[in-house]
Amino acid sequence: GKAFATNGTSYDAAGNSYQNSIKLDPFMSAILVTDVPSTTTSTTAATCSATGTILREEWDNIGGTSISDIPLQKAPSSTSQLTSFEGPLNVADNYGSRIRGYICPPQTGSYTFWLATDDAGELWLSTDSTVANKVRIANVDGYTDYRQWDKFASQKSASITLQAGKKYYIEALQKEGGGGDNLSVQWQLPDASMETPIAGGHLSPYVDTTAKATIAGTGSITRDEWDNVGGTGISDIPLQNAPTSTTQVTSFEGPKDVADNYASRIRGYIYAPQTGSYTFWLATDDAGELWLSTDDQPVNKTRIANVDGWTNYREWGKYPSQKSISITLQAGKKYYVEALQKEGGGGDNLSVQWQLPDGTMETPIAGSHLAPYTATTADQTIAFAALASKTNGDAPFGLTATASSGLSVGFRVVSGPATISGSTLTLTGDGTVTVEASQTGNANFNAAKTVSQSFVVLPASTTCSATGTILREEWDNVPGNNISDFSFQAAPTSTNQLTSFEGPVNTHDNYASRIRGYICIPQTGNYTFWIAGDDAAELWLSTDDNPDNKVRIANLLSWTGYREWNKFDSQKSASITLQAGKKYYVEALQKQGGGGDNLSVQWQLPNGTVESPLPGKYLSPYFSQQLTTSSLNASIINTQSIATANPLAATVKQGLFVYPNPASQQTNVEFTLAEAGQTDIALYNTKGQLMGKLFSGTTEANIKTNFILSAGALQNGVYIIHLTSGKSNLTKKLIVVK
Description:
Number of strands: 53
Shape: rod-shaped
Radius of gyration: 51 Å
CATH class of the largest domain: Mainly Beta
Strand content: 35-45%
CATH topology of the largest domain: Jelly Rolls
């Protein structure tokens, strides 16, 4: 009969109203609904319906105490339905559990959740009924007692606004090691009421509604291994070679800590079980790469993750590069996938995990989604551009061709004057050269159709001709070891012709020698010269065929052994550009004191060829005035055709002229000199032998001198008329044809 106060107008189940109080008979009770003004919290009934239970999954015999130890990618050992958000208490050790399903909020407003677990635990809530949108809202890193809600701050979620009648996916994870075990979830509703644990009236079990693949993997994937391979980089893997061994693995994970100095590749096909966004992770020791194709063709693969250093076994978060971006895959479609690993020393591992569109983590990817690699070969083509014509004597050059497969291209000379080493072609003569490019294929590609290119090798330009010898002069009984000890102005003790740019070796002591003449250049390009000698030596080269323009390009201040080219830096010239077909004056000086004696010159041509010593085929002798003469008739016709009081006022261009040329019986020889002095003119054959002196006497400056040379005693052939006067050295070629 006692009256109880109420807050405003209240209603019972029969619809009776009560104003501010209600009076009940003994042993009676009533449930009242209070009519209160509208606020931000609504008591609108939920439009979603709960079944009264939630799904619990358990994995037995699992070591560890961390959430990451739960093998969520594998089927659970057992499942059951719970009538509240709370698992069994103190039932076993070494297991993992997941309670998941849907929660239907009874009110619109702010909710707070608490989690208590032993050992570690996590609580996840989605923004809707989709698993992929779940976020972690609370966790336990250690353990709590049964329903101990306040041991860690992380056990309590932030305030979360939920909508009445809307279904939300919810999931709690628990990893039990040893000792006690529990898992409970409570919440506080917008009206501030606490529900411990959350009652089954708001819960429904998880139902997998994601589209599933109609194609499944075979349960394994191919693993190749190459043994005894040094290095720790992916580039060290000899993928072009056959592996040492090939096996099948039942998940996307290789063996752990098995050997050093090896490489491995796990490859095959992956079948996506759901359509949606996937994320992949790679862990390896040492370096690793993960590749995924857009289809089942390896050629379309792209790298999606990599490890540049090393990670521990299943250590997924050491480098950002271990994690792929989100990749959309289609359920039931087959994709080529490949993981590479290079092991140096120490520990070794290779593992790949993924996250499915529904948020499930699979560590490593299970064999049920995998199939071994099946070799298929694709066609490839070669791109080999046309080759431009070359000149005989050009430097070796590289060939370039590419295969559409990315594999390296090989070359061979089909025909013509050339040899090849790798991709470098060396010309050996004139004519047409045909080169073939080929690619033989591999396990992924068929052999490409060969491609040939032809080009012409033109003859080298040779406007100058060499006689095959060079002049050597020797002065005997000359003391001293230095070039400066002798002037080289006196008549030599002896002269002779050499068939290469090299003097005699170890003949006697106390002499000086000079080897001089002309060098005819076979190729245009950069040349390098070396000189070796005993004792001192110098090498001089002119910018043309005039000795007056010579410069020293190499020298020895002391002695070297025979053909010892590298004793002194000064023995080697700088790189000198010379023109093919042009004749250059060259001179080597040697001063021998006592002991051994030698003088040699070598060169390197623009094509890289080194000739040691420089051969006679490029050489001609200097036109010396000191050779023994033979009689030859010459008559002076006119020696003063031009004369003035002041010669500079009527300067005549200096020169030597011969006409007619070719000649049969006689020819005119005419010369004019810029300076007065002793003048000598002689005739030589192409071997450098003196045929006769044509003129010897004093001439004045700017005076044209003309005489007739009788050629009756000469044989058909080529001769050289050589004029010397002071610093002037003039030559003219005479051809005799009868």
